[in-house]
Amino acid sequence: MMNPYPVSRMAHTLTILARMAAVAMPVIAALIWFFWDDLAPLAGTGLDVTALDTTGRLLGFLLSLVGALIQSYGLLGLAKTFQEGARGDALSQTAVAGFRRFAWTVLLLVPVRALTYTLTVLLVTMRDAIPGNQLAIKVGTPELSGLFMGLILVFLAHVFAEGHAAQEENKAFL
Which residues have C-beta within 8 Å of that of residue 78, sequence separation ≥ 6? Predict the structure, then answer.
């Protein structure tokens, strides 16, 4: 490696951004559900939850919080990977474990998002007299794309683990 400084500076910046995003996910979920009237366009659900009472909004928030916390957990793992990269040890056991955690959470979010969307639609329509009690299971291009990206990241996590093992083997020879 000729000049590690630009890479380490970028890795340090990405560490900070990943940590900030990990904190922001649950905060954004709370803001959207408790200030729905103003922030509904940010939610991207296409649902009108303005008729929900406080209990309904709390339940909706809890559903959103599940995905947000999983995402935050993965982002904190990714932050560890970036932090190790900033230290110059991108293939350390900590870096590999952090990336593996991120990869698996991306894959886990695919069914979690489908389930939370389904439950959110059910929650909103149970409170709506017309048409009332709908069950909508959403599986489309975004979900398939998320599944494919998750599988790619899990594969890359295995590649990084092999890189770590090769690095350890090389150190043992020296």
Answer: 18, 98, 99, 101, 102
Q: Per the structure block, which two tokens stand in for 10?
A: 């970028």
| Cβ neighbours of 63 (radius 10 Å) | 21
- How many Cβ atoms are within 10 Å of 7's Cβ, its own excluded? 14
Alpha helices in the chain (DSSP H): 5-34, 36-43, 54-86, 93-126, 141-173
Residue 74's Cβ-count burial label (10 Å; 0-12, 13-18, 19+) is buried
Neighbours of 72 (CB within 10 A): 22
pLDDT tens per residue, range 116-157: 888 888 887 776 655 555 566 767 788 888 899 999 999 999
